[in-house]
Design brief:
Keywords: RNA-binding, Transcription, Transcription antitermination, Transcription regulation. By secondary structure, the protein is mostly helical. The chain contains 7 helices and no strands. It has helices spanning 12-32, 36-45, 54-65, 67-77, 88-103, 109-123, 128-141. The protein starts with 11 loop residues before the first helix and ends in a 38-residue tail after the last helix.
């Protein structure tokens, strides 16, 4: 799927930092129940915060602009794991990864996937890199995978969120996932 190109291509290291910064902003906005663009504006204006690159800003803005479609894509490719049951950091990593795969023509899919896996490895559960890889590889190829979800004992479910009932191919909330 084609879309707007990202800003001028900076060094790989700076793009990795930009992805981390975008993840921080998206995570903070969800954790605080704030609009991501307001958090982004505060971060850009803040003298005491690390600088926000154009690429980081474009990732946040792109995820916000396409969030419904991105979340629908993630839901359709994450077998047996609802958005509400995913660790929050995994949701944000997947949102950025899907945005890059679907809308950033200058980012090769394998690069977007590798960067997402690196973020999951550094910031999430032991099971998350494999889960993120499976979902994003499915999105990239157009074929859903059969990756087991992260273990349920390591999930942060937002307060008050209702877990979706298990379907015929997914474990109930009190059963450990298999895969």
């Amino acid at each position: 799927m084609s879309g707007p190109a990202s800003p001028a291509t900076p060094r790989k290291g700076s793009r990795s930092k930009a992805r981390k910064r975008a993840l921080d902003i998206l995570f903070e906005s969800e954790a605080r129940g704030e609009d991501p663009q307001e958090v982004l504006a505060r971060r850009i204006a803040g003298a005491d915060a690390p600088p926000v690159s154009d690429f980081a800003a474009s990732l946040v803005e792109g995820v916000v602009a396409h969030r419904a479609e991105i979340d629908e894509t993630i839901s359709s490719y994450s077998r047996g794991w609802t958005m509400a049951r995913m660790p929050a950091v995994d949701r944000m990593i997947l949102r950025i990864g899907v945005f890059e795969i679907r809308y950033c023509d200058d980012v090769p899919d394998p690069v977007a996937i590798d960067e997402a896996i690196d973020l999951a490895r550094a910031l999430s559960t032991d099971d998350s890199p494999r889960f993120v890889n499976g979902v994003l590889a499915g999105v990239s190829s157009g074929r859903p995978g059969t990756v087991a979800p992260p273990s349920p004992d390591r999930v942060d479910v937002p307060a008050g969120a209702e877990l979706a009932p298990a379907g015929p191919d997914e474990p109930a909330d009190d059963e450990p996932p298999t895969g």
